[in-house]
Amino acid sequence: MTSESQGPIVPREINTVFEGKIFSVQIETLTLPKGHELKAEIIRHPGSVVILPVTDEGRIILVRQYRAPLGRWAWELPAGSLKPGEDIEKAAGRECHEEIGLIPAALDYLGAYYPTPGYCDEKMHFFRATGLRIPGAADAAAHADDDEDIETGTFDRDAIRAMMAAGEIVDLKTIGGLALLG
Q1: What is d(CA 143, CA 10) in angstroms, rounded to the nearest whole number?
Q2: Would you say 17 and 26 are in contact if contact means Cβ atoms under 8 Å apart?
Q3: How crowded is residue 95: how many other Cβ atoms within 10 Å of its Cβ?
């Protein structure tokens, strides 16, 4: 019998050690099937959406923003955390509007993946956004987060490959998301 067929392991104890605006940190005490105790340090995250905005010409829109943990600026796919109870497709449209200033006519779901399952339960939902248009008077206003200073750029795939080789694109959600486009 494999561990997967045994089902989830229920924690004996859960201790929340940090509660932040975006995520919390818990220490869960578990007993593994072979009897060993595990104190798992887990980041609990509400999940996120990652948008692959593709122009009518087939170019991809990226955002450049400062990433404090890295101490540098990085080019990435637009993305953002889910709000409690938020529909993932609506969240993808919201983030597209907030981060690149455009509204998608179509959002195609590409799948969901866990970027760091060794210590975080964040599930990233990937969407291709097409039919991008400038918001009109009837559209709700976009409100970028106060802690974001975002620049946008539109690139063809050769330029993106060169940016990855030069270390300008360093985050795995962007590299993984771009791979989903084929």
Answers
A1: 40
A2: yes
A3: 22
**CA-CA distance, 114 to 124, in Å (whole number)?**
6
d(CA 79, CA 61): 12
CATH T-level fold of 48-180: Nucleoside Triphosphate Pyrophosphohydrolase (3.90.79)
The alpha helices in the chain, defined as continuous H runs, are: 88-100, 157-165, 172-180
* Token code pair at residue 22: 């975006």
pLDDT tens digit string along 2-57?
Answer: 555 578 899 999 999 999 999 999 999 999 999 999 999 999 999 999 999 999 99
Domain boundaries in the chain? Answer: 9-44, 48-180
